[in-house]
Amino acid sequence: MKFPQKHKLSQIADLIDCSYVGEADFPVLGMNEIHVVNPGDIVFVDHPKYYDKALSSAATVILINKEVDCPEGKALLVSEDPFRDFNKLTRYFKPFEKLNTTIAESANIGEGSVVQPNAVIGNNVSIGKNCLIHANVTIGDNCVIGDHVIIHSGTVLGGDAFYYKKRPEGFDKLLSGGRVVVEDHVEIGTNCSIDRGVTGDTIIGEGSKLDNLIQIGHDTVIGKNCLLASQIGIAGCVIVEDDVTIWGQVGIRSDVRIATGTVLMAQCGVSKDTTPGTTYWGTPFGEVRTKLREYAAIKQLPEIVKKLK
Fold first, then answer.
1. 147-158 as b/e: b if 16+ CB within 10 A
2. Rg for the chain (alpha carbons), in Å?
3. How many CB atoms sit inside 10 A of residue 124's CB?
4. pLDDT digit string (tens) for 117-141?
């Protein structure tokens, strides 16, 4: 998330009422999660396990809950609760805007596009040319839809990320200020749920086709010309490269990269990165021919046990 204008480190510290290490006028350009940070961004870290990763990341401002040596060329915001204060910044720069009509006045709908009855188009949404948005679709604030896109009934774009911190009193939600970006010539089936990024974008690449009943988590990127069948669940921060085929009921854990040309057969449980152009099957998943040989061998176990008696 980039801020509308450059801010000073001291200004950000005042917003969240914390101390800072660095020059008062150190430039702050935005805020992002660790996997999408750029120079000028704030990243937050509240666990010692991830201190080094945050301090060595591309982010130049680290919101942290411990006084540490500040890396050269960077600045620190020292907070008792970075998670809470990251939420404060999200509220300030991306405040909730009440919607007073089913299609926001600030929405921009391109020439030739059709929005069917009962669809809800949020604030600052951009829809390109020659799109078809079916009845009862919800497109949340700030989402971007390209040209020649079809979105079928019941689908929700821009729901909040499933991201919580466990506290003694219960779960504390990390607020979502990002977007969903759908590129040109995408078709999305009925009753799909595509969550917005926490601070960045969840992206559906050009030419990709999604079946019904698909869940895509926050900040996930689906590449170009991918084919996704029904009942797939993809966690947050997954990278699906181009020309990938994913069949029904596949589950993919967070922070996994699905390489170009991968095929995931039905009901795969994907827990690690894949190899380009390879077909996988099973849970735990593996290369399909190897898994078939394993299952064939398992079927022989009863006879092997009989011979050993």
1. bbbebbbbbbbb
2. 23
3. 14
4. 999 999 999 999 999 999 999 999 9
Which range of residues forms the domain containing residue 40?
A: 2-93
Say if CB 131 and CB 145 are below 8 A apart. yes
Which candidate in 7, 134, 152, 218 is catalytic? 218
- Could you report the per-residue pLDDT of 154-200, keeping only the tens digit for each? 999 999 999 999 999 999 999 999 999 999 999 999 999 999 999 99
**Is 72 contained in some domain?**
yes
Q: Comparing C-alpha atoms, which of 104, 206, 188, 107 is closest to residue 152?
A: 188
In this structure, is residue 142 part of a structural domain?
A: yes
Q: Is the pTM of this model over 0.90?
A: yes
Residue 52: exposure state from Cβ atoms within 10 A (0-12, 13-18, ≥19): exposed
Are residue 165 and residue 36 in the same domain, yes or no? Answer: no
Shared domain for 74 and 113, answered yes or no, is no
What residues contact 152, with CB distance under 8 A and at least 6 apart? Answer: 134, 137, 187, 188, 189, 190, 212
179 and 244 together in one domain: yes
Please confirm, yes or no, whether 218 is among the known catalytic residues: yes
